[in-house]
Specification:
Layout (H helix, E strand, L loop, with lengths): L1 E2 L2 E6 L7 E9 L5 E8 L10 E8 L10 E4 L7 E9 L5 E11 L3 E11 L10 E2 L7 E2 L6 E2 L5 E7 L17 E7 L7 E2 L15 E7 L5 E6 L4 E7 L10 E7 L6 E5 L2 E6 L22 E6 L4 H4 L17 E5 L6 E8 L3 E8 L9 E8 L5
Parallel strand pairs: 1-23
Antiparallel strand pairs: 2-26, 3-4, 4-5, 5-6, 7-8, 8-9, 9-10, 11-13, 12-13, 13-14, 14-15, 16-17, 17-18, 18-19, 20-21, 21-22, 22-23, 24-25, 25-26
């Protein structure tokens, strides 16, 4: 496989800044690119530690970046803000969807998706509104919010109980389940699609960190992080009213890590961690292991239809049918790379992701890689 891309930004950790990552991009009206990400500050890097949403900008198509600045500080009563999605609203506003994590007295920690909007390109922001009224612990994936051609805004989420580590009956023995939150009035009110996606097997983790892609024919493809060795998927041909049977995508083998797929120029790009390229290597437990490696980019020239097709089977050799258009972003098997997001440029695309940076913690530093279309054409 050919290695592609060059590093254009690296956000290292440091004293009182133990973690940077889970980023996403947006094109600003003045032509710049904003990269927003979770910035942890203090001593702790874990998901429940103190964090805020920060950002930096580029005005030369991702070649150089400004110093970081705080976009959404942690508010009083919050544990942290994290996992941001940026989206251009239908009225032209800049929209930010992120998680507001807070402790519920006597119960535990909730994690709620909220939306804020800006009419002046991020200089000032509205108060947040909740994307669901049902209090619980939700996990959307950074960069997974999607505006359909119809103008409907989708926010796929996994639900992990009423509070973190819920043992109150809000989860079954099949673990986390997923659903799609949506807005038909440009983000002012939100509803949930009726369909609930549940794990086909008993597991305490279930389905996690879903993302959705809209094919050119209007059909929707959703996939999920699982512990079953593959991304699992389902397809809808009626706008999300009904969905196909949940099944593994045998092309997208995967450790317990999320995948991102987005349209970039004439291509559809999928960024993921394939299992076969390190199967057989010694692997330790999650937080002590370079489990999410390598990081590869698969390119579809068919609007991703060949990605979501149910025709791929293990007997076809897994990745073999599409391997001609499979490229390497990161091939260091001693480090982990995860939580990718994508940005479409005129003759390039950007990929951001976590890099473990030679530490035992995979959620460590943020890296942005720039890939020219000419590298994959």
């Amino acid at each position: 496989m050919k290695k592609i891309g060059k590093e254009v930004l690296f956000l290292p950790t440091g004293k009182q800044n133990p973690r940077n990552g889970e980023g996403t991009f947006i094109r600003l009206k003045d032509g710049g690119i904003m990269y927003a990400f979770t910035e942890y500050y203090g001593e702790d890097w874990e998901d429940s530690a103190t964090a805020r949403i920060s950002a930096c900008c580029s005005y030369d198509e991702g070649e150089t970046w400004s110093d970081k600045f705080v976009l959404f500080p942690k508010e009083d009563g919050d544990q942290n803000n994290m996992s941001v999605n940026m989206i251009r609203m239908n009225n032209g506003d800049l929209g930010a969807l992120y998680l507001r994590k807070a402790v519920i007295e006597g119960k535990g920690m909730s994690c709620m998706p909220v939306l804020r909007r800006s009419s002046d390109e991020g200089k000032t922001w509205s108060d947040y509104i909740y994307c669901t009224e049902e209090v619980g612990y939700y996990c959307p994936f950074n960069g997974s919010a999607l505006k359909l051609r119809s103008g409907r805004i989708l926010m796929p989420v996994s639900f992990h109980g009423t509070v973190h580590g819920a043992k109150d009956g809000s989860l079954s023995e099949y673990g986390a389940y997923a659903r799609i939150l949506y807005s038909d009035d440009d983000g002012y009110t939100w509803q949930s699609m009726e369909h609930i996606f549940r794990s086909p097997y008993k597991t305490h983790k279930g389905l996690a960190e879903p993302s959705v892609y809209e094919h050119e024919d209007g059909s929707l493809w959703i996939w999920f992080r699982t512990v079953f060795g593959h991304q699992y998927q389902s397809v809808s041909h009626d706008g999300g009213k009904t969905w196909s049977e949940l099944m593994p995508n045998f092309y997208f083998t995967s450790p317990d890590a999320p995948m991102q797929v987005r349209k970039v120029g004439p291509y559809t790009a999928a960024i993921f961690n394939p299992i076969p390229y390190y199967a057989g290597n010694p692997r330790k437990e999650f937080w002590e292991s370079p489990k999410r490696t390598p990081l590869v980019c698969s390119i579809s020239k068919k609007d991703g239809v060949d990605f979501s097709s149910n025709e791929l089977r293990t007997c076809d050799g897994g990745m073999a049918p599409l391997e001609e258009d499979l490229f390497v972003l990161e091939d260091d098997l001693t480090n982990s790379f995860c939580y990718p997001s994508l940005f479409e440029g005129p003759d390039y695309f950007l990929v951001s992701y976590y890099c473990s940076n030679n530490t035992p913690v995979c959620l460590n530093c943020a890296r942005i890689t720039k890939v020219m279309y000419s590298e994959i054409g």
